[in-house]
Write a structure and sequence with these properties.
- This protein is an alpha+beta fold.
- It is built from eleven helices and 13 strands.
- The strands form four sheets. Strands 8-3-5-4-12 form a five-stranded antiparallel beta sheet, with helices on both faces. Strands 2-1-13 form a three-stranded antiparallel beta sheet, with no helix packed on it.
- Strand 6 and strand 7 form a beta hairpin.
- Helix 4 packs across helix 5.
- The longest helix is centred in the first third of the chain and has 21 residues.
- It is globular, with a radius of gyration of 25 Å.
- It starts with 7 loop residues before the first helix and ends in a 20-residue tail after the last strand.
Length: 415
């Protein structure tokens, strides 16, 4: 894959200080930390290590990663580790993908109350699926699911929604058998949508009555109960978007999907096109035009002033400690291993490979260092001869490596 000519880090290095000064007092500590981490990622600021080829003595200098979960460069290793554990948990059944989206009117409230409202989104969506699946008129079974929060649209706008992956079936109420869903169909979308709407709005109203929501700016008047109720009234009649995709084509397709979605950030470096006097240009997908234009014309280029690009990027910084990947029902952490083992016994399926010891939480990332490379595998092969590279030096944050690339001088005797 061709490396992008510039990265989100470059936008922040060039324009980040000016943005921070212009918006002083309006940026959270979390947003400032994200900006600092991404700018420092894989630079001498974080230290690094030096590797030497055992065969040709070629030397490579590598700088440590920031490990921040919002950094476009730091999610690959975390995703691979997480996926290795999920692979061991897949059941030999069809898997479905369901998306629950908040209306724009709720999105504004969510942005000012991220932890509380995003948590409600998880709870309402998972409770909706578990409740409808347990209904004998639909599936009549206890199910498990994995939910992943995304807060962005393709144009970096604020668009909170959860992607949920769920096996096509569940455990009978008495725990004695596996109940499979109908082929190609999991649960009725309209029924899901209406229960999701009711559960979410009821839970949101409860939070408001308990004084656990804060409002400022254009939403400041919502502290008044009558105005808050008036804002929600039309949403109680509107159709909420719940989208069910076709089942995945086997476990490998599930893993391929998860590898793209679980540790995704608001925008990847590969989508960036240009950074110039006009601003930042990047690719985005106009889903409203999809199917109405020829070929891939619905994939377009958008140019934003650097200030606006940074503003949109920072919209998606999550509160510290907020878990954006969660498991529910049969896949809830406490009983997941036992439940999966029981389901495999009922299906007569072989045991999955053993889960790696010391599994970290899905959102935990660790800065890449020389020690981390030694723990998780060898350094990359030598770019010159393909030989084995050995770490010969590590250097601290802000320090320069003592080892220098060797310059070989060839002398030719012409006498």
């Amino acid at each position: 894959m061709v490396r992008p000519s510039f990265e989100v880090a470059d936008v922040l290095r060039i324009h980040g200080d000016a943005y921070a000064r212009a918006h002083a007092g309006h940026l959270s500590l979390g947003q400032l930390k994200v900006m600092s981490a991404i700018r420092a990622c894989r630079t001498a600021t974080l230290g690094g290590h030096v590797t030497r080829c055992d065969d040709c003595d070629h030397i490579e200098i590598a700088y440590n990663s920031c490990g921040n979960r919002h950094c476009p460069k730091c999610q690959g290793a975390a995703a691979r580790d997480w996926l290795a554990n999920r692979q061991a948990e897949l059941l030999p059944v069809p898997y479905y993908h369901v998306v629950f989206t908040l209306p724009a009117a709720i999105g504004a409230i969510a942005f000012q109350n991220k932890a509380a409202v995003y948590d409600l989104l998880f709870k309402a969506a998972s409770e909706t699926l578990i409740t409808i699946a347990a209904d004998p008129r639909h599936l009549g079974a206890r199910i498990g699911l994995t939910a992943v929060l995304h807060t962005w649209g393709s144009a970096l706008t604020h668009h909170p929604h959860v992607h949920i992956i769920v096996p096509g079936g569940g455990l009978s109420p008495d725990g004695s058998r596996w109940i499979a869903s109908r082929p190609g169909f999991f649960l009725p979308v309209r029924v899901l949508s209406r229960l999701f709407r009711r559960l979410f709005l009821n839970k949101l109203t409860t939070l408001h009555q308990a004084g656990r929501l804060t409002y400022f700016g254009d939403l400041a008047t919502l502290t008044d109960k009558r105005l808050f109720d008036a804002r929600l009234a039309p949403l109680r009649r509107a159709e909420w978007v719940v989208y069910a995709k076709r089942p995945f084509a086997g476990p490998k397709a599930v893993l391929a999907y998860l590898s793209r979605y679980t540790h995704r950030v608001a925008i990847s470096n590969s989508r960036l096109i240009a950074l110039d006097d006009k601003g930042v240009t990047f690719r985005w997908k106009d889903y409203r035009a999809r199917g109405k234009v020829v070929d891939n014309a619905w994939i377009k280029a958008m140019t934003l002033p650097a200030d606006e690009f940074i503003r949109r990027f920072l919209l998606h910084v999550l509160p510290d400690g907020f878990h954006r990947i969660r498991h529910y029902g049969l896949l809830a952490s406490g009983r997941r291993a036992a439940n999966l083992a029981h389901l495999r016994d009922l299906m007569g399926a072989p045991d999955a490979t053993a889960q790696a010891p010391g599994e970290a939480h899905a959102d935990e990332t660790v800065a890449t260092s020389a020690e981390a490379i030694m723990d998780h595998g060898s350094p990359p092969a030598c770019p010159c001869c393909g030989g084995h590279m050995t770490i010969v030096e590590t250097f601290a944050r802000g320090a320069a490596p003592r080892t220098r690339r060797t310059v070989i001088t060839i002398r030719i005797d012409t006498s």
